[in-house]
Amino acid sequence: MADRSSASPIDSDRLLAGQTFPKALRLLKPAQFRWVFADASKFANRHWTLLVRANGLPIPRMGLAIARKQVGKAHRRNRIKRIAREVFRHHKRRLVGYDIVVLARKGAAEVDNATLMRSFEHLIGKIEQHKRSSQGQTQT
After folding, report:
1. What fold characterizes domain 20-132?
2. Nearest-5° Cα angle at 86, 22 to 63
3. How many Å apart are CA 82 and CA 66, to the nearest integer?
């Protein structure tokens, strides 16, 4: 049920060019989030949990679910979201074909920006590793 409700075909080259994060690369609707939650692979470390599901599209999409219970006040949640968007924008070409829901773990707000970015990038590497290993299994 990858949401392909847009009437025009996806211009993946335009969406993946540059350092932008247009609406087409975002999970926006509750149904899109439910779809990812229903059958996601989980990649986690001390600061982040990424729920990942193949979307069958030539683009990656990301949604943020940063809970007040985990991170605290709005300014802290906003900082966490800003960092997640920034890392996603820089690495979106590596994540093509996936829908990703980002969850922050307890204590993430107390960590500096550089550590959070490295931590997120580490999880992107784990997703790529999983992608390569699952492609290898289907080609044998």
Report:
1. Ribosomal Protein S5; domain 2 (3.30.230)
2. 55
3. 11
Q: How confident is the model at residue 4 (pLDDT cuts 50, 70, 90)?
A: very low
Closest CA to 88 of 80, 10, 110, 47: 80
- Nearest Cα neighbor of 99 from 58, 140, 47, 133 is 58
Cβ(46)–Cβ(103) below 8 Å: no
SS (HEC) of the chain: CCCCCCCCCCCHHHHHCCCCCCHHHECCCHHHHHHHHHCCEEEECCCEEEEEEECCCCCCEEEECCCHHHHCCHHHHHHHHHHHHHHHHHHHHHHCCEEEEEEECCCHHHCCHHHHHHHHHHHHHHHHHHHHHHHHHHCC
Mind listing the pLDDT tens digit for each residue in 120-135?
999 999 999 988 887 7
d(Cα 94, Cα 59) in Å, to the nearest integer? 10
